[in-house]
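Dissemination and training. As part of the outreach component of the grant, students in the summer workshop were shown how a complex can be specified as a set of sequence lines and then modelled as a single object. The example used during the hands-on session is reproduced here so that future cohorts can follow it. Participants entered these lines:
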Amino acid sequence: MIKAGIVGGTGYTGVELLRLLARHPDVELAAITSRGDAGSAVADMFPSLRGAVGLNFSDPKEAPLGDCDVVFFATPNGIAMQQAGELLKAGVRVIDLAADFRIKDIALWEKWYGMTHASPELVAEAVYGLPEVNREAIRKARLVANPGCYPTATQLGFLPLVEAGCVDLGRLIADAKSGVSGAGRKAEIGILFSEASDNFKAYGVPGHRHLPEIRQGLAQFAGKAASEIGLTFVPHLTPMIRGIHSTLYARITHEEDFQALFERRFANEPFVDVLPPKSHPDTRSVRAANTCRIALHRPQGGDTLVVLSVIDNLVKGAAGQAVQNMNLMFGLDECSGLLQVPVLP
Amino acid sequence: MIKAGIVGGTGYTGVELLRLLARHPDVELAAITSRGDAGSAVADMFPSLRGAVGLNFSDPKEAPLGDCDVVFFATPNGIAMQQAGELLKAGVRVIDLAADFRIKDIALWEKWYGMTHASPELVAEAVYGLPEVNREAIRKARLVANPGCYPTATQLGFLPLVEAGCVDLGRLIADAKSGVSGAGRKAEIGILFSEASDNFKAYGVPGHRHLPEIRQGLAQFAGKAASEIGLTFVPHLTPMIRGIHSTLYARITHEEDFQALFERRFANEPFVDVLPPKSHPDTRSVRAANTCRIALHRPQGGDTLVVLSVIDNLVKGAAGQAVQNMNLMFGLDECSGLLQVPVLP
Amino acid sequence: MIKAGIVGGTGYTGVELLRLLARHPDVELAAITSRGDAGSAVADMFPSLRGAVGLNFSDPKEAPLGDCDVVFFATPNGIAMQQAGELLKAGVRVIDLAADFRIKDIALWEKWYGMTHASPELVAEAVYGLPEVNREAIRKARLVANPGCYPTATQLGFLPLVEAGCVDLGRLIADAKSGVSGAGRKAEIGILFSEASDNFKAYGVPGHRHLPEIRQGLAQFAGKAASEIGLTFVPHLTPMIRGIHSTLYARITHEEDFQALFERRFANEPFVDVLPPKSHPDTRSVRAANTCRIALHRPQGGDTLVVLSVIDNLVKGAAGQAVQNMNLMFGLDECSGLLQVPVLP
Amino acid sequence: MIKAGIVGGTGYTGVELLRLLARHPDVELAAITSRGDAGSAVADMFPSLRGAVGLNFSDPKEAPLGDCDVVFFATPNGIAMQQAGELLKAGVRVIDLAADFRIKDIALWEKWYGMTHASPELVAEAVYGLPEVNREAIRKARLVANPGCYPTATQLGFLPLVEAGCVDLGRLIADAKSGVSGAGRKAEIGILFSEASDNFKAYGVPGHRHLPEIRQGLAQFAGKAASEIGLTFVPHLTPMIRGIHSTLYARITHEEDFQALFERRFANEPFVDVLPPKSHPDTRSVRAANTCRIALHRPQGGDTLVVLSVIDNLVKGAAGQAVQNMNLMFGLDECSGLLQVPVLP
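and obtained this result:
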């Protein structure tokens, strides 16, 4: 049994990790930390976990994290970069669900995240945890940077096209829509029920932190510099709890059988499902599951491809992908603990 | 492996049965019938099942239901009563998720359901599938009448009080609220998104079919005639997909430590969770799980008890309870295939 | 033109007052205060008011409230009791949408609201602003205590029965459901979209502040002491923005033609609509309008009456009723500015 | 007073027309037809109209439509083209809220709508009712083709750019999101609450009927042939009742002060509101009102413009715009009956 610890277990990615790990056949939950709630039962905060998780929150300073095999950081940005180093030295593997180790260009990261990076040397070591691209590196990694939710849906949707070099990389568009849980479990007016319900809006159009992350990924797929990727990324807030729908637009530069290209690229991927032609995936078709479903369109036979890519932001976009990465890092079946059927309706 | 068939797999209880059975370690899905959709893949109608259910819908007349060990009827009322007899003769056990075998008084059933009963003799044999009350009988049953969703939440909430004889049976009130999936997957104006969303209403106040079912159960618990049970039952439609919240009111006639009474009664029940005093269970704390959570209040120390009882109408209120019954009927671990952690948020 | 001021214009009752007053033919908006947002345009915070409200928020200390004819307090509890006296001295009439002047029994108020009352003498003067009961007193009032949302729906639903003395006052039950806007525009975890959506729960069952307010009203209708009113009040949070649905239960002690009783009682009330027998009002049928719709049931002809009463908590339950009270206080047509047709769907 | 009739008053555009016309100071409702519901009170079907609309539905054949000054068709496509001619002959002006007269190219219309057009000569006469473009023609029109909801939001968002000739017309993208009421009040599985709630999906990506309508409009603005407009249009279904959010992408070909361009173009438009730079309009900011709010972005100073355009699909996207057109046709104040403040929250 792998002993797992979670730092910051009171947010939505934390409780989702708990949901998945509580039933993972190869994992034993060893510690969950929360500064504010130390001593209280996890299941008191999240009654859905009554009977499934018996742990109490422990104080970050006293939690036996050094005895764990793996520690997940489900913390705000800027925490893992301060604590990961010590854990790694103690032989603990680390998976950060925040953004601390996602961007290789330290200056770029510091610009978008507005802080000085506390451990740039770990950024160099960290592996970006998108198994469909970096599977072998993840298997050997000590430190994994779990991708963001928008970046997961968007990069997977663009991946075959960019790898195959058949679209104009200078003019990509990602019009993405997220459920409100993507904004986290924070007491903020803008994500109150009475604000976000029965309402739809774009946000962060001038610039969103997931933009450089997506651009870095696309550049890697293309084998080019990030500066060669022209990407317009517009996120929107949708009145649903879970789910991301990325609608991607790309201009074709080389003809291909695009449906076949996608099917081929993801043929052996356990968590990417390419739908038949003319499909429209809905976000609920992946609700509470670690699946990305993708459909491809070429409206009116023109030169613009439209890719529709959906995930559950808390699973394939966060906690589920983190467990998938853990499975790889410890040589387990990649699907272990991740075969939940989506909840529909 | 138990071979299971489903008659009527295109409604919400059908797809929920599929979700649960697809991952049940002891079950093999053998057939799913649908008159209108025979030949098409189940996963085409419900893309959430892609990769989990490979079956096609088959025509009810041609489906190998007689070769199954158990057949679930996830059909409208009035179907199972016509087909169950033949299956039972063939040695197949039957679990009806509709109402055909729930009410022992045939005349009463015919009045509320507006049809002539096709097999009254089977009604006598059928066991009402509420394991917390009828566990031993279910183990031996050939035919189980799976309880309705409101009746499950309401009967479990009243059960300890009625068994213990400490409340006025002549003046019970059940104010129940259901998510919209309880109305089924039917093309009806009243349950359109634009009608049911951002809206709340009572319905069926003059009389709802679950009233006689609940009354029959309470009478059994009390060891009295149904006519001695005075129950006012008011169902409401709530703008959520899943969930039932029954708010129950009873006048105390005998003093008791009511919290202890509830905890004792359900101490060994794997799927009933009595919350600590002063709790308010929310429906999402059981979302997609087979759990009933119950809390007890006595406002201002008066003589009125308030019981709050929540379930997921599609799981403990339908498909999950049906699987629980199947587990009992076949001598499996009662929890087999039913240990999903609720999905929150 | 009546010059109106609003203290505390950044909550939901504040913005709803603005929506109504901006188009009121007899009112000129003179000042809206907000400590935190002084100087910024109201329409910057609430873009729905662009083009309709040109005012800036002003600092409470500098706002020309003394020059107003009427000042509305759309503040948290405990503010109006400190400021109303001075305004009244200046000849300004005051309508408090919070709870400061609703409860006549000062000790009772202090117990439920957890503070010392700053101006008990004004409590004695204040008129409880339920026009269907206190219309003539409101016309002459300098200070009106605008009723709470639950109390409005619940008192109007019980009113004819209690006045007529035909139900058991010792065992009334009000099972009430509120949209989330009733909890206000506050940054709290529990009312986040991801917490309150697709979810239903009771809250405050041990005791809610609206209980003594409702009890005081019912006692007044009955001409009895509050201690003679036995009321169980259970509020629930419903995943919708606006709307209250009160489901009321009462045991009949004297027979009556109850439908006729209700129709007669409200025959001349412009904002109470008694529906035909067997109706089920939905909350959206009053969305954004100042109407209370009521239906009456007597299930199975028993001795329990069920009253269904719906309002929009922000209109008839708050801002709309405040405007109705203002109309009465200033001798305007009671319906002035309040004839919006409900928004459906 | 203008006598107005409505053909097909049982859908969402019908009930919205009733909401607006019931309080329009210059209009008298003369007749509302419905084949299936003739004889029953309009307010029985839509209790929100109790007290506001006293009419019964009348049979289309017997309704005194010929005595009206104006008749609105709130019918499915294909009805108005059969009945408008006779009404026009009788001197009645006609506003069609369906699509019968929107597309000037008859063959194109027949291809997209799958029927033979019954009165092509009226198509030539009909004026496309987008007042911001065709105001003078609308004033003189006998027959107005009220624009579709997506086309209204999308055309208004592109209008200044296309008129000014500063973007690449060959590669425009409209990623549009609609509330579910846009699908109408029809008993269809796909728009049930339990299907559409907590869910998001694209639909009609291979081709949607609003595509040729939008393209025709853009071509007119540009003074070009429709074939010169390259438009990718992707509609999505969003879990909210009302609202359209069009996110528009265009490549800049000529530099301009785009913010100033938009402000100038709409300076005198009573129902188009250009927001300050860096704004993100939300759909609720126009809920239940006849306003289109638009914001403009140029992310990272690149060559792609992003326009965000929101309307209420039932108001500016249907019934409200129809009333605006009626006001113009009859020489009334263009804003008459349309000054409702949006309902927020």
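The first strand of chain C starts at residue 2 and ends at 7. Students were then asked to discuss how this feature might be tested experimentally.
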